[in-house]
């Protein structure tokens, strides 16, 4: 429904990442006047693209799940997503490579397992892979649990502003025993890893299942069990590849935004959110320009929004005092233009560490790069050959690392860690001679991520989802401390990952629109 003239607001969206674009589209579709600002020269944030010497790389996210979220944004404007973004299903969804640890925990030799969406087919895969039915049966039970957690999340967690457990209880203004039963079923107090291992005994299978939660960049040993719901989201709707790369998603959203009248301004760095102490009044850019508005949607990191854009305000001081959030992990990305393909690689691949518990300990407890890391490898020429010259590959390799610490100097650390990563691919995934096949190379480190995307300490995924009771909760989208401020992005509810950040943008926009229609945005329109 389009807002009446009296309800229409002037809104500034700070940051044109996927969440900012989604928020701008929804707000414009509902009749608000929207200005979208980004400090970079492109829209899409981390969903950027790097093109060089005939190779094309997605720089940030490469896996699209839960496309119904993206579709809902287009639905707001009465448009068909398919007219803006073409997506192709990928099945198998992943290929998993395992390296023997020499102790029999991960088998006595290197092994390969494909993840497929169909549960019955996956059970057959697991029976063949493990030599028995126990893990397949456990996997089926796990997906059943995941489905339940997903359904509960849909009722109490998704598509509305949630900042803590109390917000999940506020459903229709009433609390009931059925609500309590659902909340208790979220397995609070249990970790993802403990739930996974209670279903499957094989270490390799559990390692694969742990990585359903790697979209949120947190340790499965410290993340709450409710995040097991991600498994059902993925198996239910599948994994998709946008033709043209994931860059096609922000391009499609930007096209929609322009059609809806959004004023998109790139190369505009917002330095401050202005307020009169109680409500938002505008933003100030790096060149000193004051842009008045009725409301702001910040697609910047939530902590940095309060720490930097609201610096010196009472709201900033209170947020810092109560700040319990820590950054999620960061990562090293290698973009390798190869003069050949490796036929054993699918579009999406995980090359697993031999000891996942030790790997996560290094990243999340010690704050140091893991000596034996897990590498995510994307080989998109399998699906779209145009990403590289004929017969070649534009390989994307992501290894999770700790978020930036003061003693980390990635200019010195990268060359050595690059060798660790390439050695891992050769020993585990059979990419022999990969160094000789590289004809183009670029990279991104935690330091580069921190500076390029204005995230907290180089964290790719915003804020960590650690804490077995409340780890899934992020700062709520509708801010209660400053009228007219709304948060969107991976460091806001419901968290990181392509579908979740787009959902956060929708929630921020929906919350703002509700407040405008309800007369809660009291500032005079500029």
Automatic annotation (TrEMBL):
Keyword Transport tagged: no
GO MF: hydrolase activity; oxidoreductase activity
Keywords: Carotenoid biosynthesis, Hydrolase, Oxidoreductase
Enzyme kind, highest EC tier: oxidoreductase
Pathway(s): Carotenoid biosynthesis
Pfam families, A to Z: Amino_oxidase
Domain Amine oxidase: residue ranges: 18-510
Protein EC: 1.-.-.-
Protease keyword on record: no
Family the UniProt entry places it in: Belongs to the carotenoid/retinoid oxidoreductase family.
Protein name: Phytoene desaturase family protein
Species in which this protein is naturally found: Roseiconus lacunae
Name of the encoding gene: crtI
């Amino acid at each position: 429904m389009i807002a009446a003239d009296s309800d229409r607001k002037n809104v500034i969206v700070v940051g044109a990442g996927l969440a900012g674009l989604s928020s701008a589209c929804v707000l414009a579709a509902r009749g608000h006047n929207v200005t979208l600002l980004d400090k970079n020269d492109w829209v899409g944030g981390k969903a950027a693209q790097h093109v060089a010497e005939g190779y094309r790389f997605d720089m940030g996210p490469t896996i699209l799940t839960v496309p119904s979220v993206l579709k809902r944004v287009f639905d707001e404007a009465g448009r068909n997503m398919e007219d803006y973004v073409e997506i192709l299903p990928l099945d198998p969804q992943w290929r998993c490579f395992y390296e023997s640890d020499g102790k029999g925990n991960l088998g006595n030799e290197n092994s390969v397992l494909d993840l497929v969406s169909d549960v019955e087919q996956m059970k057959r895969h697991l029976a063949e892979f493990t030599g028995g039915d126990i893990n397949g049966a456990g996997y089926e039970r796990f997906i059943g649990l995941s489905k339940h957690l997903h359904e509960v999340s849909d009722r109490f967690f998704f598509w509305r502003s949630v900042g803590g457990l109390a917000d999940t209880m506020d459903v229709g203004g009433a609390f009931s025993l059925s609500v309590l039963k659902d909340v208790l079923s979220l397995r609070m107090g249990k970790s993802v890893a403990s739930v996974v291992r209670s279903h499957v005994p094989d270490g390799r299978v559990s390692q694969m299942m742990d990585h359903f939660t790697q979209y949120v960049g947190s340790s499965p040993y410290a993340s709450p069990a409710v995040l097991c719901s991600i498994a059902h989201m993925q198996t239910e709707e599948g994994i998709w590849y946008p033709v043209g790369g994931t860059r096609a998603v922000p391009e499609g959203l930007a096209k929609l935004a322009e059609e809806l009248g959004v004023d998109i301004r790139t190369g505009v760095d917002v330095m401050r959110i202005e307020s009169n102490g109680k409500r938002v009044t505008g933003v100030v850019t790096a060149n000193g320009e004051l842009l008045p508005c009725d409301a702001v949607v910040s697609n910047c990191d939530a902590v940095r929004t309060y720490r930097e854009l609201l610096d010196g305000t009472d709201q900033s001081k209170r947020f810092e005092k109560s700040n319990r959030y820590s950054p999620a992990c960061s990562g090293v990305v290698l973009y390798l233009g190869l003069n050949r393909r490796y036929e054993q690689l699918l579009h999406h691949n995980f090359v697993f560490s031999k000891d996942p518990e030790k790997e996560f300990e290094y990243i999340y407890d010690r704050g140091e790069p893991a000596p034996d890391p897990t590498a995510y490898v994307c080989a998109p020429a399998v699906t779209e050959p145009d990403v590289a010259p004929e017969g070649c590959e534009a390989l994307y390799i992501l290894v999770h690392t700790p978020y930036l610490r003061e003693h980390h100097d990635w200019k010195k650390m990268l060359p050595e860690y690059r060798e660790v990563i390439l050695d891992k691919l050769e020993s585990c995934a059979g990419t022999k001679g990969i160094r000789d096949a590289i004809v183009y190379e670029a990279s991104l480190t935690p330091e580069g991520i921190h500076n390029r995307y204005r995230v907290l300490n180089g964290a790719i995924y915003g804020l960590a989802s650690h804490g077995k009771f409340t780890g899934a909760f992020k700062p709520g989208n509708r801010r209660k401390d400053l009228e007219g401020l709304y948060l969107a992005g991976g460091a806001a509810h419901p968290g990181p990952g392509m579908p979740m950040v787009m959902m956060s943008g929708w929630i921020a926009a929906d919350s703002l629109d509700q407040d405008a229609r309800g007369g809660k945005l009291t500032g005079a329109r500029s």
